[in-house]
Amino acid sequence: MQISERISAGARDKLKAAIDEVDGAEVLAVCELDEVGVIDSVNIAARGGASSVPALYPHMDRGSVVVHNHPSGVLRPSAPDLAVAAELGNRGIGSYIVNNSLSEIFVIAEPIRRAELRPLNIPSTAEYLEAGGAASRTIPGYESRESQIQMLCSVAEAFNDDHVTAAEAGTGVGKSFAYLIPAMLWAASNEERVVISTATINLQQQLVEKDIPAVNRMLPEAVPAVLVKGRGNYLCWNRLQEITQENELFGEGEDELVGIRAWAENSADGSRSDVPFMVPESLWMKLRSEADTCLMLRCSHREKCFLAKARKAAAGARVLVVNHHLLFSDLAIRVQGLGFEGTAVLPPFHRIIFDEAHNIEASATSFFSDSHTSAALRRNLSRLLRVRRTRRIGLLMRIQEAGFLKEEALTRIETALVQLETSISAADADTLQVLNGRFNLRLLGTEGSLYRSSLFPALDTLRHDLLHLLGLLSDLYAVLNDEASDSAEVYELRGAIRRLEGSATLCRRFVEHEDDATSVYWIEQRRSEAGVPTPRLQRTPLSIRDVMEEAVFTPYDTVVFTSATLTVGENFSYWAGRVGLDVGLERTRLRVFPSPFRYDTNVLLGVPNDAPPPDALEYEAYLVEFWPTQLDRALPQLGLQLCVKVTMSGRGCCVVLLRNRQPPCLPPTVFGKGSMLPVRPCSWSLSAAYLFVFLPIRCCLPVWIISKLRAEIHSLSWLFRPQLCVLNKVLGALCVAATTAV
Fold first, then answer.
1. Are 725 and 717 in contact, with CB atoms under 8 Å apart?
2. Tell me, what DSSP letter sits at residue 304?
3. Cβ count within 10 A of residue 302
């Protein structure tokens, strides 16, 4: 094979120069092909020694070619070469070997080049939502909305032109159809997988059970879509068997698992939401699937594994509906070295839509945070070794029964576990003493002497005892890995070591927190299931900008953010800055799509003029008496029907969603002890939803109440769209309206 048929002259010159720079040692280059399949672009990704070079997966993408040289001049691939080439080939990446003079080449694997993408026809795509289009033909009572069509066009442009688009869509725009139609058409025509990430279970259910089936009825051919849940939602057969055998051994709690086993034998998906009865959290934590304890191909139950079935269904789908936390767990694995063309938590995908995007910062921050509780640490230790009725059970006992752990070594580990239990209890006691009755406390320099005298010594001791145990377990792992490297016990022990290392690292980070300017550290007091106060240590990054750039904006061609609340005064700057979206980039598109609802005619502000102040003792009693005696009696007379009521007791505010059966005799109408006042002069229509906000005359509507109301209303809004949708955006104007009305 002639090397000129594979690598252009300019690319060969660049490779030769890189090899000469390291005196003929191995280099690794990630290269791109031109239209005829010849390498014309070279990026030197790594430099090695005389016989090896690191394979850095994050530099590689589907359709590219990895080229490395053999200084010996022998181009036949070694076993490590073949292993790496197989891994890359499964991601669509080719592998070539060349000699140092760039005169010979050996092709191990050909790349899988991406097919030419077929852009969406935007006018044709918009027709789905226009009057007389597919939506109106398949959805009874569907009404075309101009803002929805405009948003659909914006999302379609993002797919065609590889944009990062942020779209604020007011309540009632119908944003799910606006992004689902172009996303599903794109996935079908280009065979690319699209991920739709949400923050709430309610929206996930709406998408999977209602909106996606509705869109599929509009399309010429249905697009397969699945809801992907985190592994903790699925029952682990291996864990269930272990717990059942343990309970049978000691004659305890056998009846507690009978129902779960009976359900599992007949369950279609094995997820917790499918269980027809309440499962205590403490029990589910023992039964759920966990990454560190999953035996994968080593598991004797792999043929009926619920998680494996779910992952197989995801691999066959073109649209994946996930939550933000699950998506970020997948992205973290990819950034850490897996790359973006393999399967991590999710199968590979190329486009992302973030719905409920106002929650991204909280979700990403939560995922990339670290926490420690004594309960979690004790649970991890108990999987290694625990004693029931003087009998020792757990992973270490299985290792000993297999002949890899001598009694003397087991005794040393037992002694370390006893010492560790003492240090765990001492750390809890000292942490609670530092809290001194407070529910949370951020570590700041103002109380540094207190931390150094009480908290840090206890954490140092705990870390020291963890490291001692880790040393013993690492010695055991080395022996076990040499003699039984393919056993399930090796895999499980490695996971246990990883979890304990995380606890030790967090203890060190707390002691050295003043050296970490990128994170915030705090401790908080919680209650155990038994009601006992227990402390929690938490570390959280201050910003997700770098994470978003590395894991989202750079690797993915299209990213769409949408929510009803992304702007402040129709300005994206604050939200965009928090999530690392640079608003000035050519690739970035920011759009606001106003709600089609008439806030000016469909919103009332109610001010009970005799209400006591919200901080008065009699205020809650007033609210309790107000609803049944005043409002409930008045509504039928006014032709109004109560749909939703959210009461913020003690805060001076109630929200009600009302539907009118006939034009109400308002405004203004005085009933009982309160007055109903419109935000502005209104004309009333029959099929409208009305948002009523009640607040005491002495109380303004502060910003935190608006935020709370928006969150509450946003979680309920899907129940009432389109005609009975809660009028969310009006809350921003209610401060002024409240003052005017009063």
1. yes
2. G
3. 15
> What are the residues whose beta carbons fall under 8 Å from the beta carbon of 362, sequence distance 6 or more?
none
Dihedral, CA of residue 566, residue 567, residue 571 and residue 576, to nearest 10:
-30
- Taking only the tens place, the pLDDT of each residue in 40-87 is 888 888 888 888 888 776 567 778 899 999 999 999 998 888 988 887
pLDDT of residue 614: 57
pTM over 0.90: no
Q: How confident is the model at residue 459 (pLDDT cuts 50, 70, 90)?
A: very high
How many other C-beta atoms can be found within 10 angstroms of the C-beta atom of residue 100? 19
Residues in the chain: 742
Helix (H) or strand (E) holding 261: helix 254-266
Six token digits for residue 74: 């022998």
> Can you tell me the distance from the alpha carbon of 123 to that of 121, in angstroms, rounded to the nearest whole number?
6
- The total of other beta-carbon atoms located within 10 Å of residue 207's CB is 22
Q: How far lies 211's CA from each of 5, 228, 457, 520, in Å?
A: 51, 16, 55, 40
For the CA atoms of 333, 334, 336, 337, the dihedral, rounded to the nearest 10 degrees, stands at 120
Geometric angle at alpha carbon 739, from 733 and 742, rounded to 5°: 130
Please spell the DSSP secondary structure of 100-124, one letter per residue. Answer: TTS--EEEEE---PPPPP----HHH
242 and 265 in contact (C-beta within 8 Å)? no
pLDDT tens for each residue of 584-631: 778 899 999 988 866 555 544 444 555 666 566 776 676 666 555 555
pLDDT tens digits, 507-517:
999 988 888 88
345 vs 402: CA distance, rounded Å: 32
Residue 44's closest CA among 62, 27, 23, 58?
27
What's the gap between Cα 596 and its chain centre?
31
Cα 221 to Cα 209: distance, rounded to the nearest angstrom: 18
Residue 16 CB: number of other CB atoms within 10 A?
A: 16
**Amino acid letter for position 257:** L
CA end-to-end span of the chain, whole Å?
87
Residue 345 near residue 238, CB atoms below 8 Å: no
Q: Which two tokens stand for residue 373?
A: 């509780």
Paired tokens of 603: 């919103």
519-571 confidence digits (pLDDT tens): 899 899 888 767 788 899 999 888 888 888 888 998 899 999 999 889 887 78
pLDDT tens for 314-367 read 888 999 999 998 999 888 878 776 667 667 788 889 899 999 999 898 888 888
Q: Using one digit for the tens of pLDDT, what is the confidence trace for 125-161?
A: 999 999 999 999 999 888 899 999 999 999 999 999 9
Q: Write 203-211 long-range contacts (CB < 8 A, 24+).
A: 203/355, 203/356, 203/718, 204/321, 204/323, 206/176, 206/718, 207/176, 207/180, 207/321, 207/355, 208/321, 211/176, 211/177, 211/180
**Which residue is listed with tokens 């598109």?**
589
**CB 104 within 8 Å of CB 6:** no
What's the token pair of residue 122?
């935007």
